[in-house]
Amino acid sequence: MPLDDDNEERKPPKGQYMIGADLEEHSVEALNGFVADLRREIERLEAAITKKGSGRETAESFFKKK
């Protein structure tokens, strides 16, 4: 299997971003869109972390009371 075939498998579909992919083929507008999407995803992940963290604190405080 030639190395080029392996690189082709790692290329995202045109207009989509994949972490670690070559950025040269994307326009500035597309890159800005990817950044906005990633920021929204980071916010979503941070909210999930906060929610899970508060649930854990509640559980820990419940078990410490007994």
UniProtKB/TrEMBL annotation:
<protein>
    <submittedName>
        <fullName>Uncharacterized small protein (DUF1192 family)</fullName>
    </submittedName>
</protein>
<dbReference type="InterPro" id="IPR009579">
    <property type="entry name" value="DUF1192"/>
</dbReference>
<dbReference type="Pfam" id="PF06698">
    <property type="entry name" value="DUF1192"/>
</dbReference>
